[in-house]
Automatic annotation (TrEMBL):
Lineage of the species this protein comes from: Eukaryota, Metazoa, Ecdysozoa, Arthropoda, Hexapoda
Highest taxon of the lineage: Eukaryota
Domain GIY-YIG, chain residue ranges per copy: 184-271
Protein source organism: Cyphomyrmex costatus
Residues passing through the membrane, by range: none
Protein name: GIY-YIG domain-containing protein
One Pfam family of this chain: HTH_animal
C-alpha cells in the first residue's frame, strides 16, 4: 500500500475459502472442494409464481436453480443447497408439489444425459434430421396468448415464444441526460407543414437530424425525381416546420419499424405519403383504423 496513496489494497482472511463469482472454493486436506456461493446482499427474489408470465418461464426458474446446485456445488453440499432453493422458491410463491416434481424431472434428465454421453456420434447423426423451427416472440397475456398458440400449433415451421410485458427497465430508469430530439435514431417521425395540415411520416435508422437535413435540402438537389415534400413546397410555396419534428415511435428492429411507419401513415388525415408506402400493410390491421 506504500506504492501510491490512491492504490490501496485490502486483505480478507479466507479460512481456506475463496469466493469466486458464484462458487466458493474450499481447501480441504490438499483437495479443492466447491460450493454454490451467494452474496450476503442476495435478496432471494425470483420470478414470482403469481406474476403474469408464461408457465414455462416459472418452470425455467426452478430448473435454473436446480442446475446451479448440481453444477456449482460438490455432491457433499447438494442436500443443504436443495434445502436452500426449496425455501427460496416457497418464498416466491411456488407450490411445493411443483417444486419437487420439477426437481425430480430435472435430476432424471441430467442422469439420462450423463448415461447417453457416450452416444455422441449417434446423436450428431440424428440431429441433422431434426426439424429446425423459427420462433416468433409475442408479449404474454393470459388467456389471449393461449388462444394464439392454438393457431400456431397447426404450423410446422413456426413456434411461439413469450416475453413479459412488465420489465424492470421500464420501471427503474437510469438517470442519464435526456437526448435531444434530433439526435435520436431508429425512429418513426412526422413532419408537419407550417402553412397547412399536410403531414409526412417516415422512418430512419440514422440520427433524425441527418434524415431531416436530407428532406430540407432535397429541394436544392439537381435531380428530376422530386420527393413529395419538395413537390408540396414547390407547388404551394409552403414551408415545413423543421424545428418541431415529432417522433412517433422508436424501434431498433427494421421490420417492426417499417410496420410502425405504415400504421402511422395510415392514421394521417392529410397525408403526403404516396399510396405505395402502405402496400405491404396486411389487411388484418384495417380493424385498428375503424375509429379514425
Amino acid at each position: 500500500n506504500n506504492y501510491h496513496p490512491r492504490l490501496q489494497f485490502t486483505l480478507e482472511v479466507g479460512n481456506n475459502r475463496l469466493n469466486f463469482l458464484d462458487v466458493t472454493l474450499i481447501k480441504n486436506n490438499n483437495f479443492i472442494m466447491y460450493d454454490w456461493y451467494q452474496k450476503p446482499t442476495s435478496s432471494g427474489r425470483y420470478l414470482n409464481y403469481f406474476s403474469q408470465h408464461h408457465f414455462t418461464h416459472k418452470i425455467g426458474v426452478i430448473v435454473s436453480l436446480v442446475d446451479r446446485v448440481l453444477h456449482l456445488s460438490h455432491p457433499m453440499y447438494h442436500e443443504q443447497n436443495f434445502d436452500k432453493i426449496i425455501k427460496i422458491l416457497i418464498q416466491n410463491g411456488y407450490p411445493l408439489k411443483l417444486i419437487f416434481d420439477t426437481i425430480k424431472r430435472r435430476i432424471h434428465k441430467k442422469i439420462d444425459i450423463y448415461k447417453n454421453s457416450n452416444k455422441i456420434n449417434n446423436n450428431d447423426n440424428n440431429s441433422n434430421n431434426k426439424i429446425k423451427y423459427n420462433y416468433f416472440t409475442i408479449p404474454y397475456i393470459s388467456n389471449m396468448s393461449n388462444k394464439i398458440k392454438n393457431y400456431f400449433n397447426k404450423c410446422d415451421t413456426f413456434k411461439l415464444a413469450y416475453k413479459g410485458i412488465n420489465r424492470l427497465d421500464r420501471i427503474v430508469k437510469v438517470q442519464k441526460d435526456k437526448l435531444q430530439t434530433m439526435l435520436h435514431s431508429n425512429v418513426v417521425y412526422k413532419i408537419s407543414c407550417g402553412d397547412c395540415d399536410a403531414t409526412y411520416v417516415g422512418q430512419t435508422k440514422r440520427t433524425l437530424k441527418t434524415r431531416i437535413t436530407e428532406h430540407r435540402n432535397h429541394i436544392n438537389w439537381n435531380t428530376q425525381q422530386k420527393s413529395v415534400i419538395t413537390e408540396h413546397r414547390l407547388n404551394f410555396s409552403h414551408e415545413f416546420d423543421w424545428d418541431n419534428v415529432e417522433i412517433l415511435d422508436e424501434e431498433i428492429n427494421l421490420n417492426k419499424r417499417l410496420i410502425s411507419e405504415m400504421l402511422h401513415i395510415h392514421r394521417q388525415k392529410n397525408s403526403l405519403n404516396v399510396q405505395t408506402d402502405t402496400d405491404l400493410l396486411d389487411k388484418a390491421y384495417d380493424c385498428l383504423f375503424t375509429n379514425y
